[in-house]
Amino acid sequence: MQRQNQEIDPITLEVLRGRFDALADEMEHTLLKASYSSIVSEAQDATAAVFDVKGRTVSQACAIPIHLGALSELGKRFAETYPKGTAEDGDLYLVNDPYAGGTHLPDFGMASPVFFQNKLIGYVATMTHHQDIGGAAPGSASTDVYDHHSEGIRIPLLKLASAGKLDTDIIELLVANSRSPHNMRGDLYAQIAGCRTGEQSMAKIFGDIGVDTTTRGIDALLDYGERLTRLAISNVPDGEYEFSDWLDNEGLADDSDPVKINVSLTVSGSDVKFDFTGTDPQVRAAINNVPSSSISCVYYAIRAITGDSAPNNDGCFRPISIFLPKGTIVNPTYPAPVNARGVGICRMIDAVMGVMSKAMPDKMNAAGCGHANIFLAGGVDGNGRRFTGALGGPLRSGMGARPQKDGIDVADHELSNVFHVPLEVTEKEFPVRYQRMQLWTDSGGAGRSRGGLGFEAHVEWLSGNAVLSVRGERHKFQPWGVKGGLPSPVCHTELLDSDGSVTTVPAKIVQPIQAGQTLRYWSTGGGGYGSPIERDPELVLDDVLDGRVSPHEAKQIYRVAIKNSSIDVEETSKLRARS
């Protein structure tokens, strides 16, 4: 064991970093493999983290960046509420209250204290998005609610287990409030398994490396994360920058006013400040975001410029200050509804990345699709079987174009980072058939680098009746381009009846659907980067031959003439000369 005044040598420090990263990953893998609902087992909407005895984040599994701020905040609250002398070996703590450190009600945070040789050494935590926790609409994440208490069961920070004895009454209470009780029970026990796995592995790290060395190593890892983050920030030009983006509407009426997200960035040496002054007030619908959600946008943006070299811990966030005006959509007052927070947070990250692109235009991507394809369904099929959950397929669509590369087609990106639930899984869980799921031609913003394409989907309802909570966006405001890159098109959703009539579906609505109807939606791609006429004509030809770009757009936007599957060099030269 090293003496207290000795520094941690680099090799030991890297070993510690690897052990703690592996610990968080092991917890997450346990959680994902043991969970029942497809939103966790397939989409992997869950994460895990490790905290020291002060509640500081030591490591977090590389799962969902949207949980960065939430788990950091919850770690501190676990340590404050159940510190040394209060926490007992075998405890489990549970919370989902967004106004007490949570994100939105479906995200259950669960933690357990970790002891080694009868001494409290830290905490481990798991967070899972539960498929249904009650509330006004199936899936518990509809925009169409007016009050936080209509969104589902609300859990303050409490003990789920005391000294190893599980309070099964709390489990039964939660299960009774879910439309998918089997999944609720299974996912809760999966979270418990993840925490218990983390307890054993964290204690083993302290046993293998030593309490003194590991404790000082944690401080050194946080300092290391801070140094690397400050190094990355110091490469951003000092100055003040500002950017705004808009949500289509508040979510309760399609003709309501757009909602503005405004953010200013001040860079001074190795410190940054993000100020959301100028953002619109909180809205009636459930697209508001509490601070633990909002700060994750900023944390993600800074982590994006530090890359993989920096450890994923609280030290990375020390150079960052954030101001979230009270009573706005990024910091609402209780009891504003928040369960459809993903709608608002998509635009918040666009605004944050937009202001970063003002400061670093040669390094930042154009806007991604800016929304999530979430269709929450609940009902009864033709055989009387009840179902509740989210339709599968891609959650996000096109990624924004990169400075030197095209955006990736139909890829989850930025804050969510979840896997696509296979269509076959959805067809097994719901009375539906996917008639079409294909890339949407011309949906990527034009540019020297093209935005990643979005997609088109047709979903036929086969039997029974259901209620869809539609949570769309970018139906009015296009994802933006960078340095002359063009925006991608807006999204579109409609319902096709068996008689051939078509009804346009607003981006955010609770919509009945029945057998014989077909849900059709077009999810946009990412914005472009650089002027379209700077794009290599050969790349334009490849896009046309692959069906990503139409011959019409190739000629009108890229100024490339395609004839007989080849570039008409003479005509292309004339077109580009006139641009």
Write up what this structure looks like.
The chain has 579 residues and is of the alpha+beta class. Among the domains are: 10-228, no CATH class; 367-535, no CATH class. Helices cover 30% and strands 22% of the residues. The chain contains twelve helices and 22 strands. The protein has helices spanning 10-34, 38-41, 68-81, 168-176, 181-209, 211-233, 291-306, 341-359, 423-429, 537-546, 551-556, 569-577, and strands at 46-52, 57-60, 92-95, 107-116, 119-129, 158-162, 165-166, 239-247, 259-268, 271-275, 320-323, 374-380, 386-390, 432-439, 455-461, 465-471, 492-496, 502-504, 508-514, 518-523, 562-563, 566-567. The strands form five sheets. A seven-stranded antiparallel beta sheet has the order 2-1-5-4-3-6-7. Strands 14-15-20-17-18 form a five-stranded antiparallel beta sheet, with helices on one face. Strands 8-9-10-11 form a four-stranded mixed beta sheet, with helices on one face. Strand 21 (562-563) and strand 22 form a beta hairpin. Helix 1 (10-34) runs antiparallel to helix 5, helix 5 (181-209) packs across helix 6 and helix 6 (211-233) packs across helix 7. The chain is globular. The relative contact order is 0.11. Mean pLDDT is 94; it is low at 1-5.
